[in-house]
Write a structure and sequence with these properties.
The chain is an alpha+beta fold and 290 residues long. The protein contains seven helices and 13 strands. It has a 13-stranded antiparallel beta sheet with strand order 6-5-4-3-2-1-13-12-11-10-9-8-7, with helices on both faces. Strand 9 and strand 10 (214-222) form a beta hairpin. Residues 1-46 have low confidence and may be disordered.
Length: 290
């Protein structure tokens, strides 16, 4: 079915990205504050700080935020992205290609990971609305809640996105930072760091050694059925300034090393006006029925 193919091709669009927004910047520091013990020169020269984190990893995290735009990046309220997405299976194109437009808000906490509305096809007649715990599909036929096998991967990517790492994980007690040193990732020399939370969940970031911009973000998770470990990742490329902020216009998603989708952005807008019913499932269903 055409609708299903477009949704499969765009499943990774609902994730993560280096571009999102802050609901309550006033409640947060303009630059995320690393643990107090890592702020001094003496702790930076030690292998670990009092929390068990590697100060080098915390410093890399701050360098990344600064490279992304620092206070201006942290003060974004929302972002609209427009472009095209294509699907892959076992690294080979499936032929599923579609246009999309997404509106995303920032994660604030684990229980408030933000909202996302994505419109597919040039007519925008297929809409998904991602709430904290439900992924809705809306067409002219009405609304339906997508089954777990279709949305769990979307939630996993959302909960391990760049914005989650910076805006949520960094501020949570119990998060530990580890430095992976410099290494080659593809043909890129990168600095690697890993965040490990109190539940042993993880996010690994690879930063370009010259620009300190994100090159790759990945996380591992254990399959509840087969009990094996899996890795989901996204690589960022083709950075361009948008409203003075370096913005990746190309994203490549993979699962266990196999490409699953790619997307190319043609337009990005920050801090756009949001209509009261943009994330209202029933209001959207009513409009599509007309």
């Amino acid at each position: 079915m055409r609708t299903q193919r477009l949704l499969e091709a765009a499943s990774a669009v609902l994730l993560f990205t280096a571009m999102s927004v802050a609901h309550s910047v006033a409640a947060q520091a303009v630059n995320p504050a690393p643990p107090a013990s890592s702020a001094t020169t003496s702790s930076a020269s030690s292998a670990q700080d009092a929390s068990g984190s590697d100060p080098k990893a915390i410093a890399l995290m701050q360098q990344m935020v600064d490279a992304l735009g620092g206070a201006k990046w942290l003060a974004i309220h929302n972002v609209v992205q427009e472009g095209r997405t294509s699907g892959f299976f076992q690294g080979k194109p499936t032929g599923s290609i579609g246009d999309f437009r997404s509106l995303r808000t920032v994660p604030v906490s684990r229980t408030d990971p933000g909202l996302q509305r994505t419109e597919f096809t040039k007519k925008h007649d297929v809409v998904t609305i991602l709430t904290p715990d439900i992924d809705w599909e809306i067409t002219y036929r009405g609304k339906r809640q997508l089954p777990p096998e279709e949305y769990l991967s979307v939630f996993r990517r959302r909960d391990h996105s760049l914005d989650e790492a910076v805006r949520v994980w960094w501020h949570e007690p119990g998060t530990v930072f580890f430095s992976g040193g410099q290494k080659m990732s593809g043909r890129h020399l990168v600095d690697e760091l890993t965040l490990l939370d109190s539940n042993n969940d993880n996010i690994t970031l690879q930063l370009d050694t010259e620009t300190h911009l994100p090159f790759r973000i990945a996380f591992t998770w254990r399959d509840p059925l087969y009990k094996d470990n899996n890795e989901d990742a996204v690589e960022f490329a083709d950075y361009h300034p948008v409203d003075g902020l370096p913005t990746p216009l190309s994203e490549t998603y993979s699962h266990n090393g196999d490409m699953t989708s790619q997307r190319y952005l043609t337009h990005v807008f920050y801090n756009v006006p949001v209509a009261p019913d943009d994330f209202d499932v029933d209001a959207t269903a009513a409009r599509l029925k007309k």
